[in-house]
Amino acid sequence: MKIFKKLVLIGLAGVLALGLAACGDKSGDSSGFDDGIFEADSSETLAGTGATGGPISFTSRVAAFDRSAPSHVVVRVDLENGFDHVTVQNMTVPDEYVKYSNGKLAIHQDYFTNEFDTHFDAALTVYDDAGNYSNECRMVIADKIIYTADELMQINSSAEALSQYYVLGNDISFAGKTFTMIGCVTDSDRDSVDNPFRGLFEGAGHTISDVTIDKSGGGAEAANGFQVGLFKSVGSGGVVRNLAAKNITVRAGGGIGGGLVGVNGGTVTNCYVESTVTALRWNEPCGGMIGFNNAGVTVDGCVAVSNVQGLAFCGGNFGSITNSYALAKTGSALAELGGFLHAGVEADPYKEGFEVKNHFACDMFEGTTTNCTVYEGEENQGMLNTPSNLSNLDVKYWNLTSSGPVLWKMFLGNPSSAA
Known about the structure:
Elements: H1 12-23, H2 43-46, E1 56-58, E2 62-66, E3 73-79, E4 83-88, E5 91-92, E6 98-101, E7 104-107, H3 109-115, E8 120-128, E9 133-142, E10 144-146, H4 149-153, E11 165-168, E12 172-173, H5 191-194, E13 200-202, E14 207-214, H6 220-224, E15 231-234, E16 239-241, E17 244-252, E18 257-258, E19 261-264, E20 267-269, E21 272-279, E22 286-287, E23 290-293, E24 298-300, E25 303-310, E26 314-317, E27 320-322, E28 325-328, E29 333-334, E30 340-341, E31 354-355, E32 361-363, E33 368-370, E34 373-375, E35 398-401, E36 404-407
Parallel strand pairs: 2-9, 10-11, 11-13, 12-14, 13-16, 14-17, 15-19, 16-20, 17-21, 18-22, 19-23, 20-24, 21-25, 23-26, 24-27, 25-28, 25-29, 26-32, 27-33, 28-34
Antiparallel strand pairs: 1-3, 3-7, 4-5, 4-8, 6-7, 8-9, 30-31, 35-36
């Protein structure tokens, strides 16, 4: 929910005058911003970005303000016709807080501090001098921009932290580091009820890699391994988007394992995973992307490349999966077509489980898969390397290359300190 701080009208003119002196206008003096903000980005910074194109062409697809460490927000956008103004969630940002120069739009940290007192997922819209406008860049008022493995693991520190908004600021490898599933607090099957991730995780095209989650032991360990994934569980209202996960190994004990999400009760969009997923129980739902997708939830525009014991994308699907792709790598042990997957339903006619009708996902009850494709077998291992085979993916977020689909890098960072 958006909560804006009320501006005190008395003395507002004086405050704005100070703002003008501090920040300069939108096309001239930049005294309110660090001089380095408007320098050209390095080729390393711009690697893997691309641009949306058009008279207002974004390189940034995601802008973010970090409430825990405020700094100016910088958006990379090229304008053919000159800059006029910018809005955040349909509110025009006053000129004294804005400057556009050299393909960069800077918004002063004081604007966000004054206007927002909680996290928010907003729309950022840029207007040019010719009357064109574009909102192809999200504006996340984040509780934290995450840059390190330790910061990522702090999401599990409390129920409040599991409901906050995060933006991934760069790629993070867990090689040689300890990883705990996001949404895993008690390490029991109660986590999906009591401690799911209910916040926003904006991956911004960055990658979490080199994670092994092994819950394959017997006894209590098998029971605790019933919901396994990079995100153990995503709860109602939780959102995971624009995230890549590579070299993810999941070994589920009791079943229900996914390379990205064990149990999904929220929304997952524009995500990519390369995973190895296995389970002790063959008749429990396991998938390369998601173990179990709850009723009423949505997964859209995602790609799973996996060596999997189960289904190539999603084990059990009660919800909606659209515009997604799965590649079952050679060596996968896919569930038998015509066989049955158990889903904890003990009453007839579902006591024996739900029939596996394809290797993408096992739809259960009202679950649906629409515009989804699974590739399997030795002869189909290169099918994701042909862009025309991926026409359901949104090219604003995906770079469809001859080596396979890659998420664009969408958040390019803010200055490290504010003026």
